[in-house]
Amino acid sequence: MTIRVRRVAAACALGAALTACGAPSAPHASRPAPSAPTAAVSSRPPTLAPGPAGLTPVFKNGPRVDGKTVALTFDADMTADEGPRAAAGEHFDNPQLISTLRTLKVPATVFMTGRWADEYPAEARAIGRDPQFEIANHSYSHYAFTGDCYGLPTVSPDRMKADVERAYTAFKKAGVPNAMPYFRFPGGCYDRQALKTLSAVGVTAVQWDVVSGDAFATDSDAVAQQVLEGVKPGSVVVMHCTRSAAPATEKAVRMIVPELRKKGYRFVKVSELIGAADRHR
């Protein structure tokens, strides 16, 4: 279920340093370190270091002084219990939006639920294998990780980690080769308990600083205006990739992109913004 987005107070400060999402164990003393693992480590996407008390770090926007960059992000929402609606003909995907982004040559980050990947495996695979895009985790079920989150069903604390890991499993099953170590909370709702619980997964939580207002919107002009008025250098814009719940998004993107380019903005993926933050820590 796609929901209207609200501002959520960060439960912890942003981590000041960046770290790789993992590192190989040290090689045996009698053998030189092989070159392949070293290359693999260097190619891993940037993540924020854990926050205070080891909490999952939260990223909201990139540096404001690193040029005019902006990341358009799209939530590919499908809640675990919406299968009957999809079977009845409701479209939770938006292939025209993806096609438009390709035509306009706009890099983007898609925060996908595992349930969406299960429903649209060919589309998930095509997006995940296209270097123009990166796929990040939006949970498997799209159930809330806190109470009182727009009426969404909730995930109990003992199931949160499994829900996130199940989404990564769904991506692999669909043929997505390299899902990113980034996670967006359903509804943007989180608290200290959720950040603590997910610390074992090793993800960076990605929020936003610009709300497009495209959820359930039918006025693409209004969506475009809201984005254009809100974007600043380093902004992360939250939009949606679901035809049924965000029907105005594709048309809005066709207005947003040329206008921001006229203003000198360059479109990047979230990973580039997080990487840029390392130069300004």
* Average pLDDT over all residues: 87
Structural class: alpha/beta
Q: Report the sheet with the most strands, covering strand number, pairing sense and barrel closure.
A: 6 strands, parallel
In total, the number of strands is 11
Q: SSE order, as H and E?
A: EHEEEHHEHHEHEHEEHEHEH
How much helix is in the residues? 25-40%
Q: Please count the helical segments.
A: 10
Shape: globular
Report Rg: 18 Å
| Uncertain stretches | 1-42
Measure the end-to-end span: 37 Å
Strand content: 5-15%
Which key phrases capture this entry?
alpha/beta; three-stranded parallel sheet
Task: Annotate the secondary structure layout.
Layout: E1 18-20, H1 35-42, E2 46-48, E3 58-59, E4 69-76, H2 83-87, H3 95-104, E5 108-112, H4 114-119, H5 121-128, E6 133-137, H6 157-174, E7 182-183, H7 192-197, E8 204-206, E9 210-211, H8 220-230, E10 235-240, H9 249-262, E11 266-267, H10 270-277
Parallel strand pairs: 3-8, 4-5, 4-10, 4-11, 5-6, 7-8, 9-10
Antiparallel strand pairs: 1-2
Helix pairs in contact: 3-9, 8-9
Short description:
The chain is α/β, with parallel strands linked by helices and 281 residues long.
Overall description:
The protein is α/β, with parallel strands linked by helices and 281 residues long. It has helices at 35-42, 83-87, 95-104, 114-119, 121-128, 157-174, 192-197, 220-230, 249-262, 270-277, and strands spanning 18-20, 46-48, 58-59, 69-76, 108-112, 133-137, 182-183, 204-206, 210-211, 235-240, 266-267. The strands form three sheets. Strands 4, 5, 6, 9, 10 and 11 form a six-stranded parallel sheet that branches. The protein has a three-stranded parallel sheet with strand order 3-8-7, with no helix packed on it. The longest helix is centred in the middle third of the chain and has 18 residues, at 157-174. The radius of gyration is 18 Å and the shape is globular. The two termini are 37 Å apart. Mean pLDDT is 87; it is low at 1-42.
